[in-house]
Amino acid sequence: LTVLNAGRRYLKAEDLSGKVFVTSGLGGMSGAQAKAAVIAGCVGIIAEVDEAALLKRHKQGWLMEISNNLDHCIARLREARKSKIALSLGYHGNVVDLWERLVHELDTTGELLVDLGSDQTSCHNPFNGGYYPVQLGFEEGKQLLSSNPGKFRMLVQESLKRHVAAINKLADKGMFFWDYGNAFLLEAQRAGADVAKKGADKTEFRYPSYVQHIMG
What we know:
The protein has ten helices and six strands, in the order αβαβαβαβαβαααβαα. By secondary structure, it is an alpha/beta fold. Strands 3-4-2-1-5-6 form a six-stranded parallel beta sheet, with helices on both faces. Helix 5 (95-109) runs parallel beside helix 8 (149-172).
């Protein structure tokens, strides 16, 4: 319902075939995102740093494909988008790398390859394993979290700023992004990322929350 209503509201589309939804998280509640993309008929690319979560969703049949190669992910995205086939592709890697690659594609080809975007990392708990910084691999991140939580926190905040910068560039070209109620925008704001709504007070963000804007 969230993905379908996002399409209806932001894209004015009842049919999401050929539309691309990019997000992250295949763990707990976020595990349903791959299934949602296919039910909605769109192309879903979902990043996840934990291979165990990816394999679990693939085994369930909720996730159609898995890849750790961004070149392959972009190629599959283009194929599925052109053919208008439903696809759920799990990218085994950090979503910031995925967003920045999409910016690179926009900068080099002029193509905006994503229509809808969101995030379901556990940003209500960003400094204790809910969000892993792009600067480190998953295992490295876990080790740093254990050995030097202060440095881990600093890297998470740097990562959130990069995360938002990439989303902002794509959103400026027409991609629609929403917050999934996971405190992503709040923690990004605390990290110093550019998420404030221009001309509004500090409690308002430039991107909507699905609770009020989509489901409401």
